[in-house]
Amino acid sequence: MKKIFVIGIGPGEESYMTPAAKEAILASDVVIGYKTYIDLIPHLVENKKVIDSGMKKEIERCNLALDLAEEGSTVSLVSSGDPGIYGMAGAMLEVKGQRDSTVIIEVIPGVTAVSAAAAVLGAPLMHDFTVISLSDLLTDWEVIKKRLHLAAEGDFVIALYNPKSKGRVTQIEEARDILLKYRKKETPVGIVRNAKREGEAHMITTLDEMLQHPIDMLTVVIIGNSNTFIQGNKIITPRGYAL
Amino acid sequence: MKKIFVIGIGPGEESYMTPAAKEAILASDVVIGYKTYIDLIPHLVENKKVIDSGMKKEIERCNLALDLAEEGSTVSLVSSGDPGIYGMAGAMLEVKGQRDSTVIIEVIPGVTAVSAAAAVLGAPLMHDFTVISLSDLLTDWEVIKKRLHLAAEGDFVIALYNPKSKGRVTQIEEARDILLKYRKKETPVGIVRNAKREGEAHMITTLDEMLQHPIDMLTVVIIGNSNTFIQGNKIITPRGYAL
């Protein structure tokens, strides 16, 4: 059966990779993914063709996966987190559609970055939340700003993906300015880098002071709602239970 | 060390339970959780005290876990999905704070319901999204309605948790009415019951026709944004790549 697994391995360490992800890799002839991740699982890729996707663009990678599957290989397209959240699942299905292919695409979900970051911070996501990417490479910045306004007005807990990169530094500043129109400057903010993998670091701060801490592309930023509070070294958004 | 693990086992089957979750259970003296889930992992709970939390309320369960940990036991509080998303992590930390306890609480994230449901449907979450619970047991319905309006206006993909229960049937109807003020009736909607576990069933439909299909508490409903489309038997929200 011609098949591509689009696999999320979670934060990046084997302890958060699901057995389903492992089994799919073991069932594959070819594994495409970043060397950093593949290097963590050498015992799973023995005797397989491994293609380091480090330098490949997303659509190229999907076309390559489809070429190989059409030739009869079972292919794993491996990435971190959950491939269904800003991940490779969409591009892979779009490429399949564009090429009118009959290859079967199976998405294997993983522990996504917002779950990993929340676990490090305590319990910030106990209530309705939004996930917003601040990357304006593929999305108009005006659309992102509108979403920040509406999410803030709705008192959603807000998780920001791709908050800042080397060449993109003002978006997180503008995002904070927007949020301060709706929320108190004491609003708890959690900043987590490399959540639940090697090099994990986190900071619990406030909307007022968040920009004093390092933020980059490996960071998820979580902004509390109007009920979120800091307890010791944790952030908690109450669900509303009577204690 | 007095410790409580708040563990998410993912959708419910062992293939989506992380090794970190298993290791935490194995390291525990007491495991508290629904019998349905514990029964799936008999080899992990041999020689352990197992407490079926089926009949216990959330806060009671947290107090019990804390009592046992204070007495010196390492305790696992086990639930499905991710305990950090509408789960037990918040209540457990709140109870710890209320009792001014020094017990260490560690949250072990899992594959959350929205990731599992999205994987079944294809790739609906490729862009900014919101997660909203329609349960008004702990949240004022007016707050939930306001959030639905704002999320719809912001063109977020919208995932609805707890869309309907036996005693709560009108919320999903009202939610649909609100969304129809902002989105076309052809907007793709995915309905997934028991995502990535036994009894999985799903339906791909539209905002117009979604109420003709069964929806209950085991269901997650995902409503596309203005760019979401149906391709074959999958829902795709394009990320914006040029193919």
Automatic annotation (TrEMBL), chains A, B:
Residues 3-210 form the Tetrapyrrole methylase domain. GO terms for biological process: cobalamin biosynthetic process; methylation. GO terms for molecular function: methyltransferase activity. InterPro entries: 4pyrrol_Mease, 4pyrrol_Methylase_sf, 4pyrrole_Mease_sub1, 4pyrrole_Mease_sub2, Cbl_synth_CobJ/CibH_dom, Precorrin_MeTrfase. Pathway: Cofactor biosynthesis; adenosylcobalamin biosynthesis. CDD domains: Precorrin_3B_C17_MT. Pfam families: TP_methylase. Keywords: Cobalamin biosynthesis, Methyltransferase, S-adenosyl-L-methionine, Transferase. Gene3D superfamilies: Cobalt-precorrin-4 Transmethylase, Domain 1 (3.40.1010.10), Methyltransferase, Cobalt-precorrin-4 Transmethylase, Domain 2 (3.30.950.10). SUPFAM superfamilies: Tetrapyrrole methylase (SSF53790). This is Cobalt-precorrin 3 C17-methyltransferase. It comes from Anaerovirgula multivorans.
